[in-house]
């Protein structure tokens, strides 16, 4: 395999070797695990999404490695000119991250030219300053991209996972019972008409059937709830505008619960996942 | 009403994928999506769906009319992190295709109705797919309640071959050559401009009365040649004014160069004279003709 030279101090660029798999998977996870859209991956999943993909050869994968041959960054270019994955370790200083990103892009361009490609297209995290700067300095232009849209299939399963993670935020509520009285909104499919949430330790979320004495009732439609969960809509405004109805009219616990449901991470999805 | 052989809604049966459906599924996708699936092979379908780790036959919903496949919906279920520490099971949907004769039967709604309870049974919390803002507003958001996640994904693109520039210049030439005076000027003396753009192969743009053609060749072969960094060329989509400003800036910083400047100026003046002066001298074409 060709050993590429690199202008990055202390870091070399080389092609992929089979022994790099674990390091690459770990590097991807370290870089993107706090983004929404991250798909936890194992060797089988990574091999399928990258190595076994038609139009990808092991030679299409470039790595930046340090003096101890540890992977610090890598990129995968498909034969169609798509950058399928691109990760630069978050542990390096900003200037080194920018240099490694630039060196990888340059290396992939050289591969692309050798493959006779006319263009390279890369789905990159645009909020990652060093990566974005490296791409823009090299003349890459950002174009509109198709985005991920979501709809809820199982409301109880979704809220259970979110609220388990947010149980500390709900501690102040003590052991309250809050029932979501759901309407479909624009969603055609509503898995649960009524969802009972018990704060406390542990938080429980389940389908509600009978009457719930001593509970707080929150009337909300699924479209509005998805706005709160995924799009940062302000529960307080929604309550004041009447889009969310709370009975009895002690809004505090309902507001706390809805605020805890919001997931605010930015989303990044590499081309290798899902497409 | 003319009689058709199109299936009625009652004749369309939704069913889970069965082994043996592969070729028909691929054929439907290739017919309905000629620019993507039409360029791929059955092997690509097998890799994407059948060989995916954790593939479940229930991930593919087929639409049959009298045992013949007329449509399909594909999904892929996996763990999806929606925030640090929060991972749920989700289905990414895609590769929808319905043959024209079976369309208009509200099959998307029927497919959701058929698959949602199954996804709930499998512990799936969310379903999603990639789409444009326009399609979300017109269909998915409006009719099915999909919302976009706040994406940080940007699609960055760079040309590394001459093809896109060649096509762009050919289109520019087609428009420009609708002017008879320019055609005449180029017929008298065709123009050749060498282009040396950073990162792209050197080329010569040949402007004749017939067409603007970009061919790969050493830029210095032309009497006029332009050398510029790719980053200047990349500003073209921002508009001509922006491009010219960046080009002049690059010239002043000596990042860009024009060789044969005198020739270039002379040819510019000749073309301007050929195209503009007669236009200035020409009477106003919108004149109503009554003032004479």
Q: What would you say this structure looks like, in words?
A:
The complex is a heterodimer of chains A (275) and B (292). Chain A is α+β, with helices and mostly antiparallel strands and 275 residues long. In chain A, 33% of the residues lie in helices and 24% in strands. Chain A has helices at residues 21-32, 43-51, 94-114, 129-137, 155-165, 222-231, 235-241, 251-261, and strands spanning 3-4, 12-15, 61-65, 71-77, 82-88, 119-125, 141-143, 147-152, 177-183, 194-198, 204-207, 216-221, 245-247. The longest helix of chain A has 21 residues, at 94-114. The relative contact order of chain A is 0.12. The mean pLDDT of chain A is 92. Chain B is α+β, with helices and mostly antiparallel strands and 292 residues long. Chain B has 9 helices and 12 strands. Chain B has a 5-stranded mixed sheet. A 5-stranded mixed sheet of chain B has the order 10-9-8-11-12. The relative contact order of chain B is 0.07. The model of chain B is unreliable at 281-292 (pLDDT under 50). At the A-B interface, helix 2, helix 3, strand 6, helix 4 and strand 7 of A face helix 2, strand 3, strand 4, helix 3 and strand 5 of B.
């Amino acid at each position: 395999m060709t050993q590429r030279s690199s202008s990055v101090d202390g870091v070399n660029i080389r092609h992929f070797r089979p022994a790099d798999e674990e390091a690459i998977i770990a590097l991807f996870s370290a870089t993107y695990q706090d983004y929404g859209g991250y798909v936890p991956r194992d060797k089988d999943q990574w091999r399928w999404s990258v190595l076994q993909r038609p139009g990808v050869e092991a030679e299409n994968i470039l790595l930046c490695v340090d003096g101890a041959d540890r992977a610090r960054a890598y990129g995968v270019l498909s034969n169609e000119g798509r950058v399928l994955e691109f990760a630069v370790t978050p542990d390096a200083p900003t200037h080194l991250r920018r240099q490694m990103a630039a060196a990888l892009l340059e290396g992939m361009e050289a591969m692309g030219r050798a493959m006779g490609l006319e263009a390279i297209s890369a789905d990159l995290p645009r909020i990652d300053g060093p990566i974005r700067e490296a791409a823009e300095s090299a003349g890459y232009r950002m174009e509109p991209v198709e985005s991920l849209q979501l709809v809820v299939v199982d409301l109880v399963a979704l809220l259970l996972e979110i609220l388990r993670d947010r149980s500390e935020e709900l501690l102040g509520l003590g052991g309250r019972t809050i029932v979501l009285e759901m309407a479909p909104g624009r969603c055609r499919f509503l898995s649960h008409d009524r969802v009972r949430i018990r704060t406390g330790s542990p938080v429980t979320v389940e389908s509600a059937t009978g009457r719930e004495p001593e509970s707080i009732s929150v009337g909300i439609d699924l479209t509005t709830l998805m706005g709160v969960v995924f799009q940062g809509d302000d529960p307080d405004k929604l309550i004041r505008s009447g889009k969310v109805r709370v009975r009895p009219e002690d809004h505090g616990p309902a507001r706390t619960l809805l605020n805890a449901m919001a997931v605010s991470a930015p989303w990044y999805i590499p081309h290798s996942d899902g497409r | 009403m003319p009689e058709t052989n199109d299936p009625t809604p009652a004749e369309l049966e939704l069913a889970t994928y069965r082994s043996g459906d592969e070729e028909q599924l691929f054929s439907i996708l290739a017919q309905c999506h000629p620019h993507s699936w039409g360029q791929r092979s059955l092997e690509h379908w097998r890799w994407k769906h059948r060989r995916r780790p954790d593939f479940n036959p229930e991930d593919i919903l087929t639409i049959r009319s009298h045992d013949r496949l007329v449509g399909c919906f594909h999904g892929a279920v996996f763990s999806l992190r929606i925030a640090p520490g929060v991972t749920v099971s989700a289905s990414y949907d895609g590769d929808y295709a319905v043959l024209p004769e079976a369309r208009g039967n509200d099959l998307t709604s029927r497919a959701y109705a058929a698959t949602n309870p199954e996804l709930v049974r499998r512990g799936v919390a969310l379903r999603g797919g990639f789409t444009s803002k326009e399609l979300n507003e017109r269909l998915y958001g409006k009719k099915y309640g999909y919302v976009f996640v706040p994406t940080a994904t940007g699609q960055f693109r760079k040309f590394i071959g001459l093809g896109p520039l060649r096509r762009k210049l050919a289109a520019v030439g087609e428009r420009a050559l609708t002017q008879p005076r320019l055609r005449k000027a180029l017929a008298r003396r065709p123009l050749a401009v060498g282009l040396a753009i950073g990162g792209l192969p050197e080329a010569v743009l040949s402007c004749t009365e017939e067409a603007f053609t970009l061919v790969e060749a050493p830029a210095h072969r032309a009497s006029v040649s332009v050398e510029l960094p790719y980053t200047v060329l990349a500003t073209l989509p921002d508009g001509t004014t922006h491009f010219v400003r960046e080009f002049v800036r690059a010239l002043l910083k000596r990042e860009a160069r024009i060789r044969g400047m005198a020739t270039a100026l002379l040819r510019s003046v000749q073309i301007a004279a050929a195209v503009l002066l007669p236009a200035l001298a020409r009477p106003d074409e919108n004149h109503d003709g009554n003032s004479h």
